[in-house]
Amino acid sequence: MTSKTDLSALTGGLDETAARIRDLNEKVIAAAKQSGTQSLDAYEKTLASLLSFGEKVAEATQLEWVSALAKAHATFVTETTAAFTAAARDALK
Description:
Strand content: under 5%
Largest sheet: none
Number of domains: 1
Number of helices: 2
Shape: rod-shaped
Number of strands: 0
């Protein structure tokens, strides 16, 4: 038969373990949020660079309709991406 002191020691140990697990979970969540934010930043920068390159190539063709099409595409992708990344950033808060 276990005594009250044995149960108290066991309960105290479980509480400490639960607190350590809770702290570890909070650290993992914080790290995941930071990683997600960095990934979104990198995605936005890469996409902006790619779209800028596409616009420059289109302008180099000296065909007005190609340049206009590239600019329209870049605008659409930029606005769509801004909406998605804003939603992702809100989810990471």
